[in-house]
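new request in #modeling-help
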Amino acid sequence: MTHAAASGIDSGPVTSPFDIEDYLRRVSGRVDGHLRRIAADQKRQRPARLAEAIEYALLGGGKRLRPALVLASCEALGGDPGDDGLALRFALALEMIHTYSLVHDDLPAMDDDDLRRGRPTVHKAYDEATAVLVGDGLQSLAFRHLLGTGDPRAAALAALLADGALRMVQGQALDIGAEGRKLTEDEVLELMAAKTGALISAAVVGGAIAATGSPRGLEPVGRKLGLAFQIADDLLDLTGDAAALGKRVGKDQAAGKATLPSLVGVDEARRRAGAACDEALAVLAPLGAPAEALRALARFVVTRKR
Amino acid sequence: MTHAAASGIDSGPVTSPFDIEDYLRRVSGRVDGHLRRIAADQKRQRPARLAEAIEYALLGGGKRLRPALVLASCEALGGDPGDDGLALRFALALEMIHTYSLVHDDLPAMDDDDLRRGRPTVHKAYDEATAVLVGDGLQSLAFRHLLGTGDPRAAALAALLADGALRMVQGQALDIGAEGRKLTEDEVLELMAAKTGALISAAVVGGAIAATGSPRGLEPVGRKLGLAFQIADDLLDLTGDAAALGKRVGKDQAAGKATLPSLVGVDEARRRAGAACDEALAVLAPLGAPAEALRALARFVVTRKR
């Protein structure tokens, strides 16, 4: 290690001293701790095999980007995303919805994947019926966790969660319907907005609602980051490293799936992801210092390698 | 037609002048109308195939017993289960959760059924991936419908719904784990309480919460009716008519599934269903005339032929 690196001088661009990797590490640690407690609580109920499979699915790693967006968005609007707060409950619920979608997405009848985050998928590690039930149960568990404290303020967030979850399913169905035929650019954008954009967007808006009771103008930030995230995901599938990603790459091409990079080219797709990120940053600029983490996450969404 | 039948003298037992078939017909008509509107709303969104499959699943008939229990329970406690009210929204949400569970239950990886209510199951009429997504989407849609109006009172009902849905999944998992091995009577009762009892129970308790903001002592009624309903279901599978039921009979025996009738005999199982019904009726007796429909439903649960 050079002296410069040790002293931190070269540790990031001058305009962004915020350590996003450290932030994400801290959020994951916290989210994983809570998910572990939720899974342990499930394991006190029967049957054990379902509870173990739920734990296996929930604690399989992952960047916990959606929870990070919820907490950072809450902070950005002056909220305190402390332990047991509404923002944290929403963050965990959103991650459970995301996790359920991965479990079902991997099923033989869907994407038929054997590997997820470097481990056997749930239907491989257990069986297909258990994987169906793990997904179903995680969706219920998400709503139960969010609503279980009896806090009436959770109603608006649960409605947002349900809406995002439904749009995600519509996106999956668009994706399945698209296999084997050529989508237009508009169709690809519609698919992206639903399949991935809906939950990313719900994360940003949900953090704002948890902090202030309203979306407070963050809807476009959610939409832009959702778009940027999915373009980055498609670029990583084309150009990324399977080991770093913990999943197969080149899947979209192999499945004949149209993505934005496949339609407009890698460079143009990269430019559009950057532009979407910049538009989100422009909306966040007036929020000043409290939005520092959210702005760093917006940049991470497009620059990430995993 | 004899004169006596035409004049209605023989149309029911003297102690129960309440026309439960007519009540159920009116509830189904109302529930079907609302579900049709919900499905039509989905069909304004894309993709069309998912929306059509959701409509196919939602409007496949069914007794609408759970919605009837919600509305009757609400009435029993002096509530007005009018159009667009909280009880009606909960009733529809509960029926959507029930419908999703049937769609997933019929999947090849689960019970592998080709027929449901006399029609091809969703994965037969469409395909397996669509059936997974229809179930997933219906669960989200249930919560969205219940919470979508922004009524904070919906939070408690959505928590109840989530809890019932999760217990139902645990019951399904217990059921799958039980195949091929002999369950004890306690295990069978546990399985029944979770797999079917949870939603039946949620229906009764949810109606009370919609009417008064609290379960108002109706939890035991929900539990007893859930037990009675499942025993009746198992008896119909053993002795019922496939045409009237719209599904295969003798399934449990063929699959080697332990049921209460298979463990204790048909007569004893029938006696226990009757006793559970009587216990529910005893709790409901002090509620008087407003609980007439709920008491008639309690009797229907054990006397039904479909």
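bot summary: Chain B is about 70% helix and 0% strand.
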